[in-house]
Each structure stands twice: as C-alpha cells, then as structure tokens.
Amino acid sequence: MKLATFRRRAREIFDSIPEELRHGVDYVLVETEAVPHPSMPDVFTLGECATGEYDVGLDQPGAVRSGVHLYYGSFRELARLDEDFDWEAELWETITHEVRHHRESTAGEDALEDMDWAEDENFRRRAGKRFDPLFFRAGTAVGDGAWEVDGDLFVERELTADELEDEDSIAVTVDGEDVVVPLPERIGDAHYLYLDGRWDEERDVALVLVRRQGAWEQLRRLFSRRRPEVLQSSVDVGPRIK
Questions:
Q1: Residue 157 domain-assigned?
Q2: Domain check: are 13 and 55 in the same one?
Q3: Are residues 99 and 183 in the same domain?
Q4: How many CB atoms lie within 10 A of CB 44?
Q5: pLDDT (tens digit, 9 = 90+) per residue, 38-47?
Q6: HSE of 189, CA atoms in CB hemisphere, 13 A
Q7: What is the domain extent for residue 56?
Q8: Would 54 disulfide with which of 59, 99, 112, 128, CB 3.0-4.6 Å?
C-alpha cells in the first residue's frame, strides 16, 4: 500500500469509529519510520496511543489529548516479510486497539469499555470478519467458563493434548443442560462449535474449544506475527429434553 493511500485509509477508518467511542482521541498521525523491537527480529510496533495535556488555554483538570500514531515503515516491513500481510485488516486492528487503549487508561470505566469492545468483536464475528478469538471473556460472566455478549452465549472449554488425541467427543454443561458433542477434526488455536437445535435460533450458543498451551508456547505466541487460527463449525445437539 502506498503512503498516500495508507494515510487516506487511516483517516477514513479513524473517522468511521463513532465519536462516543473515540472520545478524547483527537487525531490519527502517520509516521514514516519503522519501529523494530530492540532484540527480536521481525517484530515491529505498528502503532501507539500518545497521550498528553490539552493545548494551553484548553486544558482542564484531568483532561488529556490523545492521538493514534501509526508507523508506516513497520507496516511496510511486515508486508515485506509476509506475502499474505493484510494491510487493511492490520490497519483497522491497530487503530481500534489504540483507541481502546486510550479509553481504558483514562476513563476509569474498564468494565464498560470491555463490554463495548466485546460487543464490537461479536458484531465482527457475526458479520464474518476477523475477530479476537477470546473476546467473549470481556462479556458478562454467567457461570463457570461461560459468558454472554449481546444475547449470545459462549462456553469455553480448554482441551489438553491427550484429550485431542484420545477423545472423539466431550461432555459439557451449556446453559444449565448437559450435552455431549463430537470433537471436530481440527481445533486450531480456537474452534467455535455452534450448538444448533436446542436454543432460540436468534441467539448464538457456541462451545469455544481452546487448545491448552504451555508457558513457553504462550510466550512464543505473544511475540509471534502469526495470527491465531480460529475455526468455526456447527453441530445439531437435538431438542431440549423435558
């Protein structure tokens, strides 16, 4: 993506965020340099939220003026390293991430901000767009390992390597009911298994299968550029047993 196009798309994406969600974030600024990690090659900072006081004459107690700074050179370097690099998706994710960072750090309303973010991610999931695989954890807890976001129910189940190798089905409790569901052939990093046939069709009920990772693997993933593999499928669990 050319620099001029990058600047235009950054502005358009920023302007598309509702004003009430980006309140206090006044601008998006594109810097041309790359910002590499000081010790890890192929790791770059794509953007950050710069926060400071309002200009003289406009300052008020506790007021801050924030802006999203994007590093075009970092995007360019990652695109050079990855032929499948998605400029649009990475640009959108970077801007929205930094706007959320500002809101969480200054508003003092973490729970509300988390729910706003979770609902946005759930909207992306429903629209078939890329989403954070564990967004639902920022929703409303409705039980052990279960969360609700905008009416949809997500039940998380972590699977060990032994379970993935030896089991072909698992028993779980979903919305107060015990169900046995077949395991899909591939889990990826997270697999959304939608349970059909028992609940309101207007409400998504998903068993989210997550592959358990050791500490070292989690650390590698933290600094990796690889996107998490999120798979989705559905299974009919039959009508509610009365």
A1: yes
A2: yes
A3: no
A4: 19
A5: 766 677 888 8
A6: 12
A7: 3-108
A8: 59
Residues 97, 139: one domain?
Answer: no
pLDDT digits over 221-234, tens only?
Answer: 444 455 678 999 99
Domain CATH code at residue 64: 3.30.2010.20
Could you tell me if residue 126 is inside a domain?
no
Task: Assess if residue 118 is contained within a domain.
Answer: no
pLDDT, one tens digit per residue, over 55-92 is 333 444 445 567 889 999 999 998 998 888 899 988 98
Q: What is the pLDDT of residue 53?
A: 45
144, two tokens: 């052990």
What is the number of structural domains in the chain? 2
Q: Say what the pLDDT of residue 87 is.
A: 92
112 pLDDT tier (thresholds 50, 70, 90): low
Q: What is the pTM of this model?
A: 0.54
Q: Which two tokens stand for residue 126?
A: 């429903």
More confident of the two residues 58 and 32: 32
